[in-house]
Design a protein that fits this description.
Length: 244
Amino acid sequence: MRKTCTLAREVLEFIEPYLKPGISTLEVDKLCHDYIVEKGAYPSPLNYHGFPKSICSSLNDVICHGIPSEKDILKDGDLLNLDITTYLNKFHGDTNKTFLIGDVSPENKKLVDVTYQCLRAGIDVVRPGAHIGDIGAVIQEIAHREGYTVVEEYCGHGIGREFHEEPQVVHVGVKGTGPMIKEGMTFTIEPMINIGERHCKVLGDGWTVLTKDGKNSAQFEHTILVTKDGYEILTLRQEEKAQL
Ligand code: MF3
Ligand code: CO
Ligand code: CO
């Protein structure tokens, strides 16, 4: 799990310098695909339940599962989430980040900042004996305090030999409820936070999830290992290590 998760977060680090106005999300997909394959791994999304590309690229009002396309050209002020999942030595590692493209409005920057805070606060309650509901409870509290809403239809998940395993990690909840967290578990936390209402719709392509009201959404995701007395963030990037 450490190896595949390190590779997944390296893809986010590798791709960042390319994310400039003018590049298409299809070109981004190709660069990530080649990087993953060169390292001897497989991009888990490719052909997963028929998903057609190697990464998910979700722009602005796309909440998640955006399909890379030559028609989606990055422009100044965009919010771009790239969700990378790698399959290496029979294990999956899953992580995503919302990137700010060029000059982003203060309103959108705040959304991205708060979404990251939600992820970190959710991670911070992880320890043996805590409950999965504790994670959603703190995420919901922060998001609502800042005037945002939390997407409920898509959630974090156990991960390991399979891409999506039990338990479901919902990003809203009540403290003390849900499955108990145990040492050795690996799961993702991946809150999707909206500026407007929480409701979503799925495009005719069967994948792209958008906000119903057309307002922006942001997301961050890490894969977490539950340790004896807390957690290890298996997909922690260098930039995040430097902040600690
Ligand atoms: N990586 C996503 C997650 O965090 C799942 C993408 S499924 C795909 O769970 F098929 F769209 F790739
Ligand atoms: Co995930
Ligand atoms: Co993911």
